[in-house]
């Protein structure tokens, strides 16, 4: 996706060989024009799939998911990371290990928002080791629903998440695929590879 790649190159910062900071348009400040384009791009990539719901993870997955939800005309559910007083009964939960934070956190979705008839598109901002996506797939499975696909805004293809999810049979569509962040330089997979 051209606009996304330009944004990453112009405004993204490689904090290390593995971590990309994109807080100008995705992780802190949000660019609504870019989000609208991202919503359309996900719709194009999953146009043949029947989607009844979008599932994401708070907080950075919400903006791209809402724009995709508008395109598909379906509700968007976000898994919560923090315990909420109002979120107590009928929960589907899974653990996510974060390599960047070196800790495991539980995520939760109220079971009333996912049902066995649902065909779910999972969306997240980044794909690195695949822990977050794997936990969301597990929540969909617990609900007895189907994972129709996984849509990622930025995949770091030098990390193993994409390979793991694809070899488990998931359709993973990433709008930008980064091949390297070494020496502060952001490089993308070539169009042929991507
Ligand atoms: P995974 O679970 O695939 O290892 O990592 C995905 C999650 O970690 C995403 O939900 C995202 O919030 C966070 N993450 C992973 N890598 C990066 C990165 O390079 N930059 C930012 N901003 N977040 C990341």
Description:
The chain has 194 residues and is of the alpha/beta class. The protein has one domain (2-188): Rossmann fold. The chain is 28% helix and 31% strand. It has helices spanning 2-11, 32-45, 62-72, 131-142, 161-167; strands at residues 13-14, 20-21, 53-57, 76-79, 91-98, 103-110, 119-127, 146-156, 172-180, 187-188. Strands 4-3-7-8-9-10 form a 6-stranded mixed sheet, with helices on both faces. A two-stranded antiparallel ribbon has the order 1-2. Helix 2 (32-45) packs across helix 3 (62-72). The longest helix is centred in the first third of the chain and has 14 residues, at 32-45. It is globular. Residues 19-21, 27, 57, 60, 99, 124-132, 161 line the site of guanosine-5'-monophosphate. Guanosine-5'-monophosphate binds next to strand 2, strand 7 and helix 4.
Q: What is the end-to-end distance? A: 11 Å
What is the tally of helical segments? 5
- The CATH architecture is 3-Layer(aba) Sandwich
According to DSSP, the number of beta strands is 10
Remind me, CATH topology? Rossmann fold
